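# nightly structure sweep
# worker-07 picked up a monomer target from the shared queue
# config: single-sequence mode, recycle default, output format = structure tokens
# input follows
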Amino acid sequence: MEKTEFAEARHYLGRTQTQLAQLLCVSPKAIQSFEQGWRHIPPGIERQLLFLEYLESAPARKTPACWEMQHCPLKWRKKCMAWELEVGNICWFVNGTFCRGEYQGDWAEKMILCRQCGVFRARIPCPAGDQRR
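# output follows
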């Protein structure tokens, strides 16, 4: 996650730096450092922020499960934690998914794939400069 996306997410959530710091259990100085690019945004913070955006983005809207949108064969589904936990519209939140025939273990690599996926894009607002939609 880049600093601009982090700042845009905070604005989308309508939170001050102090309020977001409380939600993410970090200091307001950490939020300022993330937005200025002085500190790397840890995967856990990125994950929490994306989940807050997910919760804010019209939770009543039904999004098909990832395995339905991606037409995953049953043998792939059985290897995937998202399928096992029945969390197909927040599959991006779960580590250990089996996407496109491969395990997705590393958070940063997984998020590159997730940001291209219709399930993620249907529920997570895109930054202003991002052309995903």
